[in-house]
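Lab notebook: predicted structure, single chain.

Context: the supervisor wants predicted structures on file for every construct in the current expression panel, including those that have not yet been purified. This is the next one on the list. No modifications to the sequence; it matches the entry in the shared construct table.
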Amino acid sequence: MMTILHEPAYWLLTAGCLCIASIPALMRSIAKGKAIAIVAFWLALCIATIWQFGLLPGLVTTLISGVWGVILLAASLIFSGIKSMPNQRFEER
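Prediction complete. Output recorded below exactly as produced.
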């Protein structure tokens, strides 16, 4: 396991998984086709990590990137809601 930490390919695949998991948080609106493509590409990178480096490092990469994507998506939804709340409040009057 410790030799994996010195593998540049592992870190590139992990960074790719993190970047792909971050994309939905950066998009203003997500169409169903784009969401399916993003999930498919993220799963492909995670499966490539599992296939190349084994089950444990691949699951770690999958778990960390998945949690990162969910946290960023939740944060973007919260912040966009906070930004739009004053606009909606003053428009109703």
